[in-house]
Write a structure and sequence with these properties.
Length: about 130
């Protein structure tokens, strides 16, 4: 497996008006457990990370095109809402950059992020597109 470094610098603004979707983030199957964080993933997150194949950066030339591709399996609004809620949970300040990076590295993604802060910024950008 070829590991690629995917550097993204983004500036994002948190959405605070999506209370119902955020409530879904606290479903038991997607809560990040404090004792052994990060250990619990959602099925939507698994599908999401599988989109990050090794040739992704060769197939698309812009970040917007990459985000459009990785979100393409999520056509159902319920799935999109669950993924958005999960990404919102992951990108909260109580999840450290190191925990976030470890979660990503434990996924099936072929693209790796070496910097948890860059990963957090990217996930926020993706979340905002949902």
């Amino acid at each position: 497996m070829i590991m690629l470094f995917f550097l993204i610098v983004v500036f994002t603004k948190l959405n605070t008006d999506e209370v119902d979707i955020l409530k879904q983030a606290f479903r038991p199957e997607i809560i990040i457990q404090s004792a052994s964080r990060p250990s619990v993933k959602s099925s939507e997150f698994d599908t999401f990370t599988r989109q990050f194949h090794q040739d992704l950066m060769e197939d698309f030339s812009t970040e917007d095109a990459v985000i459009q591709w990785i979100l393409s399996p999520f056509k159902d609004e319920t799935e999109r809402g669950r993924l958005k809620a999960y990404l919102d949970t992951l990108t909260q300040d109580d999840v450290s950059d190191e925990e976030l990076r470890k979660l990503w590295w434990s996924s099936e993604a072929d693209i790796v992020f070496y910097d948890g802060a860059e990963l957090r910024a990217f996930l926020k950008r993706v979340r905002d597109r949902l």
